[in-house]
What does this fold into?
Amino acid sequence: MLLEARNITKYYDSILACHEICLSLGEGQVFGLLGPNGAGKSTLVKIMLGLVHPSSGEAVIKGRPVSEVKNRKNIGYLPELFRLYGWLTAYEWLRFNARVYDIPANQERQAIERTLELVGLKGREKEKVEGYSKGMQQRLALGAALIHRPVLVFLDEPTSALDPVGRIEVRDIISQLKAEGTSVFLNSHLLSEVEMTCSHLGFIRKGKMVASGKIEDFMQESHEIQIEAEGVPAELLQRWEKQGRLLQRNGSNFNLLIDHRQEIPEIIDELKGCKTRVYRVDTVKGGLEQVFLDLMK
Ligand SMILES: Nc1ncnc2c1ncn2[C@@H]1O[C@H](COP(=O)(O)OP(=O)(O)O)[C@@H](O)[C@H]1O
Ligand SMILES: [Mg+2]
It folds into this structure.
């Protein structure tokens, strides 16, 4: 395992921020931690980074405790509330971070160029950061967290403050990290973002991990399909209606209610049997939203 949280509990005086949290993350996985504000997401990340001491339990990266400073070279971190020095250019900011991470002088330039490319700021690196848009600042901060090519990067609400375009840009960078095999730990309260990028999910509520696992396990089984077909006989339509199966009809598009997946091939066979021309069959996907609301109740 790349990352493990072993029974982590954290009190800030009498406030219980994390309660007996366990999780593990393998190489190349993208873990999304979902939960409302104040649930304990940022605290958990800071503990796994070795920035906050847990009251009990421990965080382990590559089998070694995060309290070992050497171990932290493997990880990158984009804080929820980051600050950049506005008087520096993006190039200077990345160079500063390259030196913090001890990147050898002869590899510095290459590391900076590669990072500018990754976060889409190539050509803008000589401008001062104070003139950057919010989205560009967020991407630069993300770049700084990646300059040393960590095996694991923690991103704490990386898109919360961005407009839709900025969100898509950051999401694309996360997808690229995933494709390169970098593991990502993502804190978010945005379901759609997590749905599109993560391989694994955890749901945290009032400091407790209420559920975790592969994303497929949380996607609800669909109970609705859409069929595009021509020449559906009137008798079949009437039968669907009588059964309460026909939810909607729009020209040659039919939305049907099903109880089980097995009914899909049965319906297709039936259509073929009466020589209907079928162009398309889709399942109408169930989202994470209901799962989230159920778990947070
Ligand atoms: N440094 C701190 N001192 C005292 N309480 C804190 C501190 N940081 C967080 N908390 C409290 O711990 C709980 C979890 O906060 P946090 O980890 O920031 O949650 P999230 O990131 O999910 O919004 C909240 O009740 C918050 O007020
Ligand atoms: Mg937070």
Notes: The two ends are 32 Å apart (CA to CA). The CA atoms of residues 231 and 276 lie 5 Å apart.
